[in-house]
Amino acid sequence: MKHGIMQEKNKMAPSLYIHIPFCVKKCGYCDFYSINYDAGLASAYVDALVGQMGGIGCRVSTIFIGGGTPTALSAPLLKKLLRGAARSAARNAEFTVEANPESLDAGKLSLLLDEGVNRLSIGVQSFNDAKLKKLGRIHNAKKAADAVMLSNKKGFDDLNIDLIFGAPEEEFDDYSAELARAVKLPVTHISCYGLTYEKGTPLYKARKRGGVIPVDEERSARMYSFAIDYLPEHGFRHYEVSNFAEKGFECRHNLNYWRNDEYIGLGPSAVSYIGGARKRHLPDVVEYVKRVRSGKSTIVSSERLAEDRKAKETAAVKIRTSEGIDLDWFKKKTGFDLEELEADALQKLSGAGLIKYERIKGKAAGISLTKKGFLFCDTVSSELL
Ligand code: SF4
């Protein structure tokens, strides 16, 4: 498949996301597309991806290899994949790989660094063994902390950890203790996600039959509010709903999504957004490899978005950032006046205390989420769509 995008002069280079759909074992809460690691299939899949990457036809500003568990790949496969991806990287591109603590060792870390990876995102999720078990994670707290320390020691100075809050029966004090531990680690970025019970996952089923007791919304909101206050006090600026970073270490790849800029997705279930069209790849790795091998497209759906739809989507994602939406920026990017396009939604959201206006000399210059808005960010985004 060729995306065939030629870069226009002055146009922002797109981002590249590569999905690695293999995990050592499926976690209880996860509904991302991934299957158990199979060496033969992984090898065929990496070959297919490298072939597809050769047809991208442009340089990308950021590369993000996620999953799944990219570091579950054997070292030779990982090397082949990284080399294939690096060929599309623009100069100074951000190059992130997601990793899980159990599949990171000194050898793989050296390999990542040698192949140009300059940002590592580790799926720590928790520093509490009982909580990790409830989530169905296969590592323990010590392994998670060791993976972070080793990554830093080997030379990763742009290091993210993912943390989950609101696990079944989780106490507020246990969560705040985890954040206190996180800020002492040599990390530059922390992503905090609330646990969601996605339909079909083992945790969802366990909740349905009363096997797990979810934390109530109030406790979950208290945990999130605490993170919003605590992490900035410790040097991690809150720059997006779930993301906190030291100055200069914001994730460029995700900022690209939140500006609704173009991105290329490769791999089963991955999505591309190029030239105003959204395209989805089929969600099955075996079929994916088969199609690439026989020269067929792996795209299963494609929609071209109308201009007002694109503008509304831009509003819905950009509002997630702490800086919010600058009205001039929005006009320049989409051609629409935000206050006209979203008149009803803005009135409703502002009346509910979910967004606030920035005014310069009495004139509206931008909008952003209030603290309450951060707590109900999904409501705000859907209102803007
Ligand atoms: S390691 Fe990540 S992608 Fe894999 S099952 Fe667990 S949460 Fe999902």
Describe the structure.
This protein has 385 residues and is an alpha/beta fold. The chain folds into 2 domains: 244 residues, Aldolase class I (TIM Barrel, Alpha-Beta Barrel); 77 residues, Winged helix-like DNA-binding domain superfamily/Winged helix DNA-binding domain (Arc Repressor Mutant, subunit A, Orthogonal Bundle). Helices cover 40% and strands 23% of the residues. The chain contains 16 helices and 17 strands. The strands form 4 sheets. Strands 9-10-8-7-6-5-4-1-11 form a 9-stranded mixed sheet, with helices on both faces. A hairpin with a 2-residue loop joins strand 9 and strand 10. Helix 1 packs parallel to helix 2 and helix 6 runs parallel beside helix 8. The longest helix has 17 residues. The two termini are 31 Å apart. The N terminus is likely disordered. The structure holds iron/sulfur cluster.
What is the CATH topology descriptor of the largest domain? TIM Barrel
Tally of strands: 17
CATH superfamily of the largest domain: Aldolase class I
Strand portion: 15-25%
- Number of domains in the coordinates? 2
Name the structural class: alpha/beta
Mean pLDDT: 95
Helical region count? 16
* CATH architecture annotation of the largest domain: Alpha-Beta Barrel
| Poorly predicted runs of 5 or more residues | 1-10
Shape descriptor reads globular
Strand order of the largest sheet: 9-10-8-7-6-5-4-1-11
Biggest beta sheet summary: 9 strands, mixed
Which ligands appear in the coordinates? iron/sulfur cluster
Gyration radius, rounded = 21 Å
Cα-to-Cα separation, first versus last residue: 31 Å
What helical percentage do the residues reach?
A: 40-55%
The CATH class of the largest domain is: Alpha Beta
Quaternary form: single chain
